[in-house]
């Protein structure tokens, strides 16, 4: 049986604007980017039109102020981690914001249950942290032609297929800790052979034994009996 929680009737209520406070924008580490809730039409088709109260009418001035506050196009460093994207409209709004990040250079998207951002392009992003998400392939990552530091720890990447797509980027450091691909035989040699310009893997600098191609190393382990 399905039982509603006591807070169920409040799940789509709008956020309240606090007029007087001492919090500066630079002090916000993980601001929520979710909208107040689904449209009335969507609630009607869900059969949940009773779950939301009449919303306050927003004036043109308030819309303009909100637009200025959400000037995502000019963000150079942004942390949108821990968004708790539990509904489709939240995911869609989140992706809309990501598409507007045309100048972002450092971006954190930790623990957002993300599965596929391949339709997103971040042309200036140099540092991307998508730890603790649900990516299963390098092909599901956004387009990041200027990436230098990429962290993918605690995802579900099974193989190194697609990693060579980063061969022509300035990628210097890569973190793949606690992914299934980490247990692949000759893991470090395979990564460095696919990414010759990579300097650090999982926090460990490139070692001499990491430079030998996997095929060559396998050849020397063979034993010929005459």
TrEMBL record:
<protein>
    <submittedName>
        <fullName>TILB protein</fullName>
    </submittedName>
</protein>
<keyword id="KW-0677">Repeat</keyword>
<keyword id="KW-0433">Leucine-rich repeat</keyword>
<dbReference type="InterPro" id="IPR032675">
    <property type="entry name" value="LRR_dom_sf"/>
</dbReference>
């Amino acid at each position: 049986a399905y039982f509603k929680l006591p807070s169920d009737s409040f799940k789509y209520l709008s956020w309240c604007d606090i007029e007087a406070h001492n919090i500066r924008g630079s002090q916000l580490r993980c601001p929520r980017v979710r909208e107040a809730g689904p449209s009335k039409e969507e609630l009607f088709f869900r059969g949940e039109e009773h779950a939301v109260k009449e919303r306050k009418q927003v004036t043109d001035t308030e819309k303009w102020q909100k637009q200025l506050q959400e000037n995502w196009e000019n963000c150079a460093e942004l942390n949108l981690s821990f968004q708790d994207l539990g509904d489709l409209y939240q995911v869609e709004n989140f992706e809309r914001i990501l598409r507007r990040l045309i100048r972002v250079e450092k971006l954190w998207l930790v623990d957002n249950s993300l599965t596929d951002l391949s339709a997103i392009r971040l042309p200036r992003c140099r540092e991307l942290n998508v730890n603790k998400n649900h990516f299963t392939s390098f092909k599901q990552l956004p387009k990041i032609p200027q990436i230098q530091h990429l962290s993918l720890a605690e995802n579900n990447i099974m193989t190194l297929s697609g990693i060579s797509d980063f061969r022509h980027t300035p990628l210097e450091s890569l973190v793949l800790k606690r992914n299934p691909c980490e247990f692949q035989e000759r893991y470090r040699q395979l990564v460095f052979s696919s990414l010759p310009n990579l300097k650090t893997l999982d926090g460990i600098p490139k070692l001499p034994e990491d430079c030998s191609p996997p095929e060559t190393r396998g050849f020397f382990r063979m034993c010929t009996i005459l």
